[in-house]
Amino acid sequence: MRKPCIWASLVIGLAVACGGSQQKKESRPPRLEEVNIDAVDTGSLPKCTDESGNPRECMDDSDCCDGFYCGIDPEGSTRVRTCLLAQ
């Protein structure tokens, strides 16, 4: 005779337990569409480029401008070494 009360209590208990466990949304990095690329000031960064404005190719650090080193650009070719800004 008490079985319906037990089942009702169990269902209500589960509903309360599941309904109260809402988690806060975790922050995520902005998507590419959300980033305002025009707001980034790249003109103030020093550049080490060739005559056509492309990053200068190099074999050694001595081929680069002051403040740059010769390395593989993670956003460019994996075969061509270019002068990268030292941080």
Outline the structure in words:
The chain is α+β, with helices and mostly antiparallel strands and 87 residues long. It has a domain at 49-87. Helix content is 20%, strand content 11%. It has one helix and two strands. A two-stranded antiparallel sheet has the order 1-2. The longest helix is centred in the N-terminal third of the chain and has 17 residues, at 3-19. The mean pLDDT is 75.
- Tally of alpha and pi helices: 1
- The 3D shape can be described as rod-shaped
Low-confidence stretches: none
Biggest sheet strand order reads: 1-2
Amino-to-carboxy terminus distance:
76 Å
The average pLDDT score comes to 75
Name the structural class: alpha+beta
What is the string of helix and strand elements? HEE
Instruction: Give the number of DSSP strands.
Output: 2
Largest sheet: 2 strands, antiparallel
Q: Report strand %.
A: 5-15%
Radius of gyration: 29 Å
Helix content: 10-25%
